[in-house]
Amino acid sequence: YKIEGSFTLSDEFEGLGKPNETKIDNNNQNKGNTVFHGVIVGDSTSKPTITNPTNNPLIVVANGAVIKNVRINVTGNITREQTENGDSALYGYNGTNTDAKYYGGVIGEIMGGDNIIDDVTVTYTGTTTLSGGSDPQKDYKHLIAEGGMVGAVVNGALIFRGSNSVSGRTVSGGGIYSNPYVGRVINGYAVYE
Questions:
Q1: Left (φ > 0), alpha (ψ -120 to 50) or beta: where does 40 sit?
Q2: Could you tell me which of 15, 62, 134, 171 has the fewest CB atoms within 10 Å of its CB?
Q3: Residue 149 parent element (H or E)
């Protein structure tokens, strides 16, 4: 996608690459799961602003994405609640046992491929609240992968290039996987090139 001017996303925006509901065909195969494979590039001089008023990342699940020369203004209040752990809170495209919570201003979850963030600014004007269940036995907020740019790198690569920045980020309830740029890296890597 070539972004030539600033714009505001709809309040109904669910994020690019949002997994669809799991559908089972006659052979018990999962169908309909999608991720974002593509490029979002803004004009290198004007660096247009994408305003996101929702609780969703710009890209929910990525597998080989490039985001370059844009500003992202997150105006919505971000909330995530983690009430599951272990085999009930795995990362994945969708379906059973994929209840791991994550958030990133650019990408929520990276599931593979080479993903590049190049000269991107993320500004937060809302707050981010991370919580567990009201039952102390279900309070796993420390497991939420929340980052200013990317929530979780599950598989694949995250490559930062150019001048990237995060500002205005206010987080309450964050644990060990709540960080300024990348929340958590599981089976992949994040580098600055």
A1: beta
A2: 134
A3: none
Partners of 118 in the β-ladder: 68, 161
Structure tokens of 67?
Answer: 């985001």
Contact 98, 149 (CB under 8 A): no
What are the residues facing 21 on neighbouring strands? none
Q: Transcribe 49-60 into DSSP letters.
A: EEEE-SSS-SEE
The backbone torsions φ and ψ at residue 87, rounded to the nearest 5 degrees and listed phi first, read -70, -10
The pTM score is 0.91
Model pLDDT for residues 14-63, shown as the tens digit of each residue = 999 887 655 444 444 444 467 899 999 999 999 999 999 999 999 999 99
**Angle at Cα 80 formed by Cα 122 and Cα 168, nearest 5°?**
25
